[in-house]
Amino acid sequence: MIDTYSAALAFIHGRTQFKKAPTLSRMRQFLHELGDPQLKVAGIHVAGTNGKGSTVANLRELFMADGLTVGTFTSPFIVRFNERISVDGTPISDEELVGLVQQIQPIVAKLDATLASGAPQNLRSLPQ
């Protein structure tokens, strides 16, 4: 069982990057096993070459000023992995990260065992 911060990071970063499939079917199955959390939240996906971080920071401040709770998931991190996942600008705690990894690990194991291409390899998305 994953019960430490270092074990959680090892699990996240330890997924092989070589099993690539040009479809979204694995990710759709993964999200379905999690209860389709993407359908339960309003989201904005910020993409592009430059300015993503400042755009996300400005949007976060605007939405928070309007009384909304704002979760962000960004990449890369500067000092600690926890910076990537935050709520209202506060990074996720080590304990919360461990809890999320404990939640997804059995699903990843199940999909690795049942899907020919395995579970998603790059576990950069964690459940809400």
From TrEMBL:
Entry keyword annotation includes Ligase: yes
Any single Gene Ontology cellular-component annotation: cytoplasm
Name of this chain's protein: Dihydrofolate synthase
Coiled-coil regions, chain positions: none
Naturally occurring in which organism (per UniProt): Lactiplantibacillus plantarum (Lactobacillus plantarum)
Keyword Nucleotide-binding in annotation: yes
Keywords: ATP-binding, Ligase, Nucleotide-binding
Family per similarity comment: Belongs to the folylpolyglutamate synthase family.
InterPro entries (UniProt xref): Folylpolyglutamate_synth, Mur-like_cat_sf
Gene Ontology molecular functions: ATP binding; dihydrofolate synthase activity; tetrahydrofolylpolyglutamate synthase activity
